[in-house]
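User: For my dataset I need records formatted as: sequence, then structure tokens, nothing else. Please produce one.
Assistant:
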Amino acid sequence: MSRTVIRNGLVVTASDETHADVLIEDGRIAALAAQGSAYAGSWTADDVLDATGRYVLPGGVDAHTHMDFPFGGTFSSDTFETGTRAAAWGGTTTIVDFAVQTRGYALREGLDKWHAKADAQCAIDYAFHMILSDVNDGTLKEMDLLVEEGITSFKLFMAYPGVVYSDDGQILRAMQRTAANGGLTMVHAENGIAIDVLVEQALAEGRTDPRHHGEVRKVLLESEATHRAIQLARVAGSPLYVVHVSADAAVAELAAARDKDLPVFGETCPQYLFLSTDNLAEPDFEGAKYVCSTPLRPHEHQAALWRGLRTNDLQVVSTDHCPFCFSGQKELGRGDFSKIPNGLPGVEHRMDLLHQAVLDGHISRRRWIELASAAPARMFGLYPKKGTLAPGSDADVVIYDPTAEQTLSAETHHMNVDYSVYEGKRVTGRVETVLSRGTRVLDRGTYVGRAGHGQYTPRGLCQYL
């Protein structure tokens, strides 16, 4: 039996903050001993880590990533190997990525393709959601089978007509299926039909720069789609999870639904909390670096997002990590913003940015861990295996230095992308050591992990229902 003890740290979970020692046996948390108790300082182990002056945190759970993801004739620049390594550098120890059904093909074929991409490549543990591109009688039956084997969430798009778009009837049918099989419907809520009209009109008028990407994907078309998704879920009797919420009016739709005690949930992402349309408007095509969908919004929307995170009208902060290099990928859209691949790099910086939000007074320390670890684990059926530090939980542990200062930059990040959307941003707090199932992946700022350590993790049902 391998034993590790982490001593003298402040253990921070979503529910508690305790100065305690942590005992790990064979990859799982065996016990915690509060300092001053009879057991504190008494455990012997093969490996002892001193966490004096540090936080001891459950590893982050990023429930929205796109590794090796096809979009606009190219693929996101992080593979499962490079992307999960970068995640580990940032204190994330589990990702939930999106397997994609190709239109005209079975869900199983898409899922098998994503298993092949990830198998023996990941530095940390991983799971999958399933993107439905083609809702029909066959795929609806397959949804039941996937839920039984641990793929318990299904994403539908109200955007991108002709690619992954589903109409209201298809969305309703999928929601009826999740209402019956216990799964969770995830929705990208933007009115893609209307957006395509506005894109066509903008380009015809010569408005081709990256900033117009944000201007045509209007707040009203996000809030309208959010409202419509909620009503479809009500009709179906299905729970709903709205991904990458970016706008104040969309938060208001979620809050109104939750005030009716409906099982409606929402996530936002660091880019909407820390970036804005000012970035999209950067000159010399630099704004292309910030093109994502939903798009960045004006600064004034950030207050509503932070408020939603405090009031629990938004429950999760994920990254929607979907990086494309500026050189050769984002540049595909020079002269036509609609051809810029949609997506940003972010999997490495989520934990640090949210710690900075604690220091800035937006959220509490325990809420940081709730948003980044516990809530996504509960939302997607991984808790308490993931998302907390409790006896029986996987020993996914981050030793975090809350006083270390760092400057975020493409020169020092580990994501496989040639720019940083947070270039030059100074933050306080840094990941020091990371354990995945008790094995060190990062050791005092040195990467010691390996591709293939990460295991595929089947999921249970949403634990908020």
